[in-house]
Amino acid sequence: MKANERHSDKKTLSFGLALLPIVMMLGLLIVGYGVMGLRIEPLLLCSAAIAAGLAWWQGYSWDDVITSIVAKLAKAMPVIMILICVGGLISTWMFSGTIPYMVYWGLKLISPQYILIAAFFLTSVVSVCTGTSWGSAGTVGVALMGVAAGLDVPLAAAAGAVVSGAYFGDKISPLSDSTNFAAIVADTTLFEHIQHLMYTTIPSFILATIVYLVAGHSSMMGEVATPQRVTDIISALDGLYNFNIVLILPPIIVLWGAISKKPVIPLMLIACVLAIILGILLQGLSLKQGLDAFMDGFNISMFPQGTDGIIADVPRLLNRGGLFSMMSTILLVFCAFSFAGALTLTGALTIIINRLLTVIHSVGQLIAATIGTTILVTAATSDGKLALLVPAELYQDAYRRMGLDTKNLSRTIEDAGTVIEPLIPWTAAGVYMASTLGVSTLDFLPWAVQCYSAIFFALIYGFTGFGIAKAPVLATAPVESSEQGVAR
């Protein structure tokens, strides 16, 4: 009762005032980040200050604002810890040779006759194993573009296949920060989110595979040997590491844990420890180097032979990871949730949702509204994480009110945010992919089938009801049991 009384004496926002903090945030990000190139974290803090000022105008105290922000961050802490562990996992798998072993065999098995499908599959495997689309495209993707050039394959098609594969892993890998972030902001668990993503991701994957197979058997494909660049990468990896089949044990442990729903953080730490042991036993590296890699990231200079005679693509592939590598992502989470916490206290989202719900009358309309909002925020802010945060905060209660599980929301914002970002030319991801692969965004867009096709499946599911999860029904104790307990 006291809490209700405390909130009842606060000023109620009009629809215009409820929109104010969101409009101001978008304006700050479009002008500050998109036009002036300012850092995104202080812009988010400014947005949080605006929302906090609105809460103060309503009659809330500073303690109320802080309590709301802390409550938001408290819910996110388990997955923030997972994000930190992801950095250690990537670096220790580089240390052991686990990821290089997968890349090594992937490159060796490339057949010129199936270059597009090979590019798609190989970048998919690397991005799933590493959780990074940029790393996958910037290393193996670059090498595959060299293969495509040597085979006289249209570079737009090859680039589209590389981007599709790179973002396949970025979307579903438990190591991906965007995958973890989507689960956080939509208030669902990581593995429930990944499992639900399969409804749209697997059909998109199959469709992309068919397109690349058909294109690969057309007259546009050449018949020449693998270029020297790929051979050089294979030779460099073979010279640096002692490859052995046991190197696949760490990812097997993680996959087994994901399937059997074991606790994620202990599982990741076990995989890290195993990878360090494998690095010591198989690669001849030291325990100190393993712990340094775990904290600061792996570096090729840890090998006694160094980087002499190794082409630049190999260090770009290997030098990554570490717990500290995730700190910038964690800082963004803190700044974003400062805004979200203050905004939640004002009740602005409830007012906006109530207005939207007068227009949205079906699950299909809700899914379509989520998709449209996510793409709009992605294009307006050029930031993939904000494109996940804003619609998640905006529509979360709407999904609950319609009796839907929030994993529908996390899936939809990833379908319309994470994998659409590289297809918008002015976003950071779009610029990176175009400059790295040497093909303009609009040229490779039609070939990035995996990225955009999930939107169509999401809309179909929304209007048909297929693949839409209902909210779990909370179990209540039977009356008889309570009475028996009292009698005892």
UniProtKB/TrEMBL annotation:
Pfam families, sorted: Na_H_antiporter (PF03553)
Localization, UniProt: Cell membrane
Keywords associated with the record: Antiport, Cell membrane, Membrane, Transmembrane, Transmembrane helix, Transport
Na+/H+ antiporter NhaC-like C-terminal domain location: 165-466
Gene Ontology terms for molecular function: antiporter activity
Transmembrane domains' residue ranges: 12-36, 42-61, 73-94, 114-135, 142-168, 197-215, 236-259, 265-285, 330-353, 359-379
Principal location class: membrane
Gene Ontology cellular component list: plasma membrane
Superkingdom in the source lineage: Bacteria
UniProt membrane topology term: Multi-pass membrane protein
Similarity section: Belongs to the NhaC Na(+)/H(+) (TC 2.A.35) antiporter family.
Matches recorded under NCBIfam families: antiport_nhaC
Name of the protein described by the UniProt record: Na+/H+ antiporter NhaC-like C-terminal domain-containing protein
Annotated source species: Buttiauxella agrestis ATCC 33320
Organism placement in taxonomy: Bacteria, Pseudomonadati, Pseudomonadota, Gammaproteobacteria, Enterobacterales
